[in-house]
Write a structure and sequence with these properties.
The complex is a heterodimer of chains A (204) and B (184). Chain A has 204 residues and is mainly alpha-helical. Chain A is built from 7 helices and 5 strands; from the N terminus they run ββαααααβββαα. In chain A, 30% of the residues are buried. Chain B has a 7-stranded mixed beta sheet with strand order 2-1-5-4-3-6-7. The N and C termini of chain B lie far apart (56 Å). The chains are: A mainly alpha (204), B alpha/beta (184).
Chain lengths: 204, 184
């Protein structure tokens, strides 16, 4: 398990552990969606994955170029394209762009409802992966087990998340039939919200 | 399959009860506690330090924290991203310097002091800049990478941390959030 603020430097390039595992989690989730659609026998599986790749690329592009939307004057120096990315509302904007593309294709190509279930399952898998590998320090704990921070025990929040998300995913596999679609999607949303609510007391 | 369903359901029920109980214990525990621990991530108390500025003045974060919000900006002279961000930091200092303390920290153990001084004069930086000669401040804040910017509210708690170049729009939003926190 890695400390979130750790960075690895190769010459002038610096890679943060958090970013690396965020990318790996995204790839794992993407792979899980692909496998899930294959397992369900979805006919348009290849086409759906192609369009989802476009949606991911669009999301990354929105995140990268968001500073120039908020502050167009930055474009007066083209080197700024290398320097700046993200900023206020960049993540929601990137997610909205990716989601919008999926919605458009969903209606235009008349995709099956399976994709929502696959997407939510993929999100859960990504969250499990990320939380297994990246430490998240919670509030000071009254219990003896947890991470040690400055000699004090704090809640190992990422472990809690990984365990609860894992149980949620297991529940989807065990309690629902393969053919179930809407029920499973609703279950995924409810379980993500429930996990968030259960975890609230342990955050700083 | 029925056994598997029962086992999974049992695990879910036990986990839910366990986390609810732990949450309740946590709330009781926190009633008698003071603030968060010191650590360089949002939600935690910003680690304190003392250092010398480039003007040979002494600076203590603990003293600055109680008065107003603080923005710590870690930079080096060789980093092109820092060049771009420094302009935004200077502009914010001119605009919001009365309400928020903008403090530059040169990661001097990764830099040359003479080049850092040239960087300050070349970019006409007027905000306070600190020399972190042995890298102890940078180490506590997990720097490099540079630039890294840490926003600290009046209570000394980190509200936001950004690694990488910072635009003026982003800086302005976070500074305004710090000031709103002071007003409320």
């Amino acid at each position: 398990m890695f400390h979130p603020l750790t960075t690895w430097s190769i010459g002038p390039l610096t890679l943060s552990v958090e970013l690396l595992f965020l990318l790996l989690a995204l790839m794992t989730g993407f792979f899980a969606v692909s496998r899930y659609l294959k397992w369900k026998g979805t006919e348009q599986q290849e086409e759906i994955m192609d369009k989802m790749t476009i949606a991911v690329i669009a999301g990354v592009a929105v995140f990268k170029f968001w500073p120039f939307v908020l502050q167009p004057s930055l474009l007066s120096d083209l080197r700024n394209i290398i320097y700046f990315s993200g900023g206020p509302w960049a993540v929601p904007a990137a997610m909205a762009a990716a989601f919008l593309i999926i919605i458009i294709y969903f209606f235009r190509k008349q995709w099956p409802a399976d994709i929502w279930e696959a997407l939510l399952g993929g999100v859960l898998i990504s969250l499990i992966f990320f939380n297994i590998f990246v430490r998240q320090y919670g509030a000071v704990s009254p219990f003896n087990t947890g991470f040690s921070l400055e000699g004090v025990t704090v809640h190992p929040v990422n472990f809690y998340y990984a365990w609860l998300y894992f149980l949620s995913f297991l529940g989807a596999l065990v309690f629902f039939k393969k053919e179930a679609v809407t029920g499973k999607s609703v279950y995924f949303i409810i379980s993500i919200v429930a996990v968030y609510l259960l975890m609230m007391p342990f955050h700083v | 399959m029925l056994v598997v369903k029962r086992v999974v359901f049992g695990l879910m029920a036990v986990s839910a009860v366990l986390f609810l109980w732990m949450g309740q214990e946590q709330q009781l525990f926190e009633e008698g506690r003071e603030g968060p621990l010191s650590y360089a991530q949002p939600g935690h108390d910003a680690p304190d330090f003392e250092a010398q500025t480039f003007d040979d003045q002494s600076f203590a974060l603990a003293e600055a924290k109680g008065e107003k919000g603080v923005v710590l900006y870690f930079w080096t002279s060789w980093c092109p991203y820092c060049q771009a961000s420094s302009e935004a930091i200077e502009k914010a200092h001119q605009e919001y310097g009365d309400g928020v303390a903008l403090i530059g920290i040169n990661a001097s153990h990764q830099d040359r002091l003479s080049e850092a001084e040239q960087f300050i004069s070349r970019n006409s930086l007027t905000f306070t800049n600190i020399i972190d000669e042995n890298g102890s401040v940078s180490e506590r804040y997990y720097v490099p990478p540079v630039p890294a910017t840490v926003f600290i509210n009046k209570d000394g708690v980190i509200t936001y941390r950004k690694t990488g170049a910072l635009t003026y729009a982003e800086l302005e939003r976070e500074i305004q959030a710090l000031r709103q926190g002071e007003d409320s």
